[in-house]
Design a protein that fits this description.
505 residues; EC 3.2.1.55; TIM Barrel; eight-stranded parallel beta sheet; non-reducing end alpha-L-arabinofuranosidase; ASD1_cat; alpha/beta; ten-stranded mixed beta sheet
Length: 505
């Protein structure tokens, strides 16, 4: 956690970090990814048979090489909105027998040449874990049970034998399963009321956990600040062995929320991810409230939050039905860094976070026929995923604040928006890490830094201005490496992310 004291803009900022005071463990799953049958994420992104850059499976080797740098622990699939009309059985078996279908989420045609077995193989090559999302639109409970049996079944049963016939003898042992995606949204096929969804989710959860009690089921929330979140948690977060659950294990393990942030103006753009911090806090309180009201015993494991879609995305600038290919700026990179600081600060409540998406679609990684391009947003994600692990540690920042308009507007009355956004960790390797985002467009801040007791490595992400972009033919934003003796004050450059890394004495 990071506490904050507001100063006037003329005062000298100060940051203190306390590596000896761990607050909560950071779940590695906060660095999860997301692949959806949308635009060029799958076809032309991770999968491009016939390309000179593809391996024998049709997987883009350059994409795999890049994503391996992020040490991604989990990848969500196949959506997203796509899953509301997706029938998994269309995407297994001989490829020449797989049907092409109209795709209603993004108004395309799905060839089904990439399906469950291809995704599982891709996860194996990437050394990551799969996370699958059930079709809560046109899908049925029987279909969902069949998919779970296909992936995890060990017996002499129909779908387990189908998997074996398709070339996979051993079960995939998929752990994470989502009970639908954004079923509250008017864009969703088979949009539901919160009452209808809660009833359906609970009944599906009962059946799914009868088939495989070891799976982790993820409830479909909204953005963490909505009555949908309260109602679904209240009606689905029940004690094991309750009258409605009749299960030896809890039915719901995580609660999903989604949020995208953006603004055409830099400072509202950079501060917008603080809405996610407030959303996490509200959702955490709603989880506690549901447990209290429903009499969930304290020994029953408390659900965590699955922030399984997050990113900077302007759907007007990068329309979903047109592939949602964003050209990210330095401003967007700083917003992503603030997003990641939020996840570190709120690590107690987060069980997973999936950046949407992993390749091409609102992504830090883009492909052409010849190469991959690392967008501005790649670099904060790379630094955090490499170094900001282990435990969140106590820190404090005192500085001035941005006082202008925010996006969303409610953010202005809900939280502070400091010029310096801070989080700190202590890794299992014994190294301490301090991430500082200076969102100010024009001013560098000479800052008193306390708690760094030895020489520190310094990684800086910045550019000439907040509009700097890596999609113009050259890398305008990257990582600059240097060092600091750890004494006195440090100047955090304007519009920058700085990561300080040192071994506490």
């Amino acid at each position: 956690m990071t506490s904050f004291t507001k100063l006037n803009d003329q005062a000298t900022p100060a940051i203190s970090v306390h590596p000896s005071r761990p607050v909560s463990k950071i779940n590695p799953n906060i660095y999860a990814g997301f692949t959806e049958h949308m635009g060029r994420c799958i076809y032309g992104g991770i999968y491009e048979p016939g390309s000179p850059l593809a391996d024998e499976n049709g997987f883009r080797k350059d994409v795999l090489e890049a994503l391996k740098e992020l040490n991604i622990p989990v990848v969500r699939y196949p959506g997203g909105n796509f899953c509301a009309t997706y029938h998994w059985v269309d995407g297994v078996g001989p490829k020449d027998q797989r049907p092409s279908r109209p795709e209603l989420a993004w108004l395309g045609t799905e060839t089904n040449q990439f399906g469950t077995d291809e995704f599982m193989k891709w996860c194996e090559v990437l050394d990551t874990e799969p996370y699958l999302c059930f079709n809560f639109g046109t899908g049925t409970l029987d279909e969902a049970l069949g998919w779970l049996e296909y992936c995890n079944g060990t017996g002499n049963t129909y779908y387990a034998n189908m998997r074996r016939k398709n070339g996979r003898e051993e079960p995939y042992n998929v752990k994470y399963w989502a009970l639908g995606n954004e079923t509250w949204g008017p864009w969703q096929v088979e949009q539901m009321t919160k009452e209808a969804y809660s009833h359906k989710a609970l009944q599906w959860a009962k059946a799914l956990k009868l088939l495989d009690p070891s799976i982790v089921l993820i409830l479909c929330g909204q953005d963490g600040t909505a009555s949908w979140d309260y109602y679904t948690l209240k009606h689905c977060l029940l004690p094991a062995h309750s009258a409605l659950s009749t299960s030896a294990v809890p039915l719901i393990d995580m609660h999903s929320i989604h949020l995208y942030t953006c603004s055409s103006s830099h400072l509202p753009n950079a501060t917008a991810p603080l809405a996610a911090e407030r959303a996490i806090e509200i959702t955490s309180s709603l989880i506690d409230l549901a447990r209290i009201e429903n009499g969930v015993p304290p020994e029953q494991l408390r659900p965590t939050i699955c922030f399984d879609e997050w990113n900077v995305w302007d759907p007007i600038r990068a329309e979903g039905s047109q592939g949602a290919e964003e050209s990210y700026t330095l401003s967007d990179a700083l917003a992503v860094a603030v997003w990641l600081n939020v996840f570190i600060r709120k690590s107690r409540d987060l069980g997973m976070a999936c950046i949407a998406q992993s390749v091409n679609v609102i992504s830090p990684l883009m492909t052409t026929k010849e190469k991959t391009i690392k967008q501005t947003t790649w670099w904060p994600l790379y630094l955090f995923s490499k170094y900001m692990r282990g435990s969140t540690v106590a820190s404090h920042v005192a500085c001035g604040t941005y006082e202008g308009e925010t996006s969303p507007k409610w953010l202005r009355g809900a939280v502070d928006t400091p010029w310096l956004d801070v989080s700190a960790t202590l890794g299992d390797d014994g190294f301490a890490n301090l991430a500082v985002v200076n969102i100010h467009e024009e001013k560098s801040f000479e800052t008193t830094v306390e708690g760094i007791s030895s020489k520190a490595q310094v990684f800086t992400v910045t550019g000439n201005d907040v509009k700097a972009c890596n999609m113009k033919g050259q890398e305008e934003v990257g990582i600059q490496e240097s060092s600091w003796d750890g004494k006195g004050s440090y100047t955090f450059p304007k519009h920058s992310l700085t990561l300080l890394r040192w071994k506490p004495e």
